[in-house]
Amino acid sequence: MIPDFRPAALAALLALGAAPALAQDPNAPQPPVPSVTAESGTLDSGVGDVDTAAWIGKPVMSSDRQPVGTLREVRTASDTADAGLMVVDREGGKTAEIPMQGASFDGTSVVVTPLLEAIEAN
User: Fold this and answer.
1) Of 75, 79, 61, whose CA–CA distance to 116 is shortest?
2) Is 22 exposed, middle or buried (0-12, 13-18, 19+ CB in 10 A)?
3) DSSP assignments along 46-108, one per residue
């Protein structure tokens, strides 16, 4: 006679399902966001070579193509570097300061590097 392992296997699966899920420790170090790391100030993506003043008043989109708001101001460290910030007017009277690193203009809107979720978290 062949032993029936189904009840034991079912019990093991139920025990695994009842065990608490392993949650991510909120205090664990998180990977850096490329546009926010200290090293990003040394990188130049060429944004400084573009007339970013023409971007003012344009809609701003996150890299996941979600609307962020309207660009109010561009603060650059110098005329030739993109180590600066963009001040974006958000819905409800809020503002967001978004790093210029990696920003671009697609002809209609300014596209920034961070995802909308990261912008909203700051």
Assistant:
1) 61
2) exposed
3) SGGGS-GGGGTTSEEE-TTS-EEEEEEEEE-SSTT----EEEEE-GGG-EEEEE-TT-EE-SS
| Domains detected in the chain | 38-121 (3.90.50.10)
**Which residue type is seen at 54?**
A
Residues 76-109: tens digit of each pLDDT: 776 655 568 899 999 889 999 998 888 889 889 9
Rounded to whole angstroms, what are the CA distances from 51 to 54, 56, 82, 104, 113? 6, 10, 11, 11, 18
Contacts of 43 (CB under 8 A, 6+ apart): 101
Long-range pairs for 88-91: beta carbons < 8 A, 24 or more residues apart: 88/60
Give the pair of three-digit tokens for residue 31: 């990977």
pLDDT tens digits, 31-71: 555 444 444 444 444 455 567 888 999 999 999 999 999 99
Partners of residue 97 on adjacent β-strands: 87
